[in-house]
Specification:
The protein is mostly helical. It has 15 helices and six strands. The strands form three sheets. A two-stranded antiparallel ribbon has the order 1-2. It has a two-stranded antiparallel sheet with strand order 3-6. Helix 1 packs across helix 14 and helix 4 crosses helix 5. The protein starts with 11 loop residues before the first helix and ends in a 14-residue tail after the last helix.
């Protein structure tokens, strides 16, 4: 399980129930719409990823044609809407990512790469204080960097763009008077309650919108041999900051989502920890950083933290998160699967089985996986992808969009 070949972590009755849910939600191969939303978060690219995975599991049934159909419909959606939004999950970069996963050509690759440079880099150049959407996984440099990392070995333009992104992120990880450059000033906070609570600005620690995402990208790039001056120091500095802001309870380490510059936490109720915020996403970024740096202690802390998160999740059956990838059961499952694959530990396999059972029964407790639409981040597409990753031997390369591997 800890080797390079992906293998199903879940088998037996749990796998059968999960695959039954996949079959029920996917339905049968059918004609695709001519034009759909082109964003990865909630549009056609996420569906293309699901149908591609189904085609890998059940070739010859027509799922491949559906994957191609949704990719083509997404391209037409981009043309019709003239989408130029930056970021992997909101703009054309998401469609380019899906095409890359399907091994299909995409005319939008260069556009997505140029968009990362034009918008992201100009906003972060010599900055001390930035909106988190400028550097995060959803809208910012870290997410577009995930696409560039996929293509860096195939395109000189992509590698140059990736190196520019990494250079910007390394600079953001510097500090002034003990405050990291990536902090967000109060004026750039979009939430009135946060601006009132943090008049000096805030620090976002999460994987989706916070510094854990850039940490994961820098670590993955370093491990892939794409290394810029100061990148290792930025990895260490950022990992140390994450370690310093943690709290601990009876289970182990835990992380806030957002704090003030003095460490004061966001007063709003926290969502259940999954990919976007909380310990699972942070633990994965620390694991990747420890792997890049060859730091066994950092990896051990990541394992301790992830096991603590799984203990907390197990203590709230029937009242837990939504089914989706972003802040739900599917996201927690996918991170658990990655730890199971990397470590081979039976504890993670057992946890993956438990989470697969919960996700398969989510219509009885947390809600139908399709209740929030067909999307990748919050809807059925993400839940189905996680279930297929748990129960089949097809490697989930799609989770590069979450910077999990």
């Amino acid at each position: 399980m800890g080797g390079s070949t992906w293998a199903a972590a879940v088998s037996g009755g749990a796998a059968d129930a999960a695959l039954s849910l996949v079959a029920a939600l996917a339905g049968r191969p059918r004609a695709t719409p001519s034009c759909v939303r082109p964003d990865l978060a909630g549009g056609g690219p996420g569906l293309a990823l699901v149908y591609d995975q189904l085609d890998r599991c059940r070739p010859g049934e027509g799922w491949g044609a559906m994957a191609d159909g949704y990719l083509a419909a997404s391209a037409r959606g981009t043309e019709r809407l003239r989408t130029t939004a930056p970021g992997l999950h909101a703009g054309p970069a998401g469609m380019a990512f899906a095409a890359r996963c399907l091994a299909r050509p995409s005319p939008l690759d260069a556009r997505a790469e140029d968009e990362a440079l034009r918008r992201g880099l100009t906003r972060t150049e010599d900055a001390h204080g930035v909106a988190w959407r400028d550097f995060d996984v959803i809208h910012g440099l870290a997410g577009t960097g995930a696409l560039l990392l996929c293509r860096a070995g195939e395109s000189r333009h992509a590698e140059r763009s990736l190196r520019a992104v990494l250079t910007a992120l390394v600079a953001l990880c510097g500090e002034r008077a003990g405050v990291p450059h990536w902090f967000t000033p109060a004026a750039a906070l979009r939430d009135d309650a946060l601006r009132e609570r943090f008049p000096r600005g805030a620090l976002n620690w999460g994987m989706a919108h916070g510094i854990a995402g850039p940490l994961a990208l820098m670590a993955l790039a370093w491990s892939a041999g794409v290394r810029m001056p100061g990148q290792d120091e930025a990895l260490r500095r950022t990992a140390d900051r994450l370690l310093a802001c943690r709290t601990e309870d009876a289970q182990g380490p835990d992380w806030p989502g957002i704090t003030g510059l003095d460490g004061t936490p966001d007063p709003r109720p926290r969502r259940t920890a999954s990919w976007c915020y909380g310990t699972p996403g942070v633990a994965r970024s620390l694991w990747l950083a420890g792997t890049a740096l060859g730091d066994a202690s950092l990896r051990e802390t990541a394992l301790w933290a992830m096991k603590a998160a799984l203990c907390r999740a197990a203590g709230q059956p029937g009242a837990g998160p939504s089914p989706g990838l972003c802040h739900g059961l599917a996201g927690l499952l996918q991170i658990t699967l990655r730890f199971a694959h990397d470590t081979g530990e039976a504890e993670f396999r057992r946890a993956a089985t438990d989470l697969t059972v919960r996700l398969s029964r989510s219509r009885e407790h947390e809600g139908n996986p399709a209740q929030d639409g067909p999307g990748f981040l919050n809807g059925a597409a993400g839940a189905l992808l996680a279930l297929l990753a748990a129960t089949t031997d097809n490697a989930p390369g799609w989770d590069r969009a979450l910077l999990l591997a």
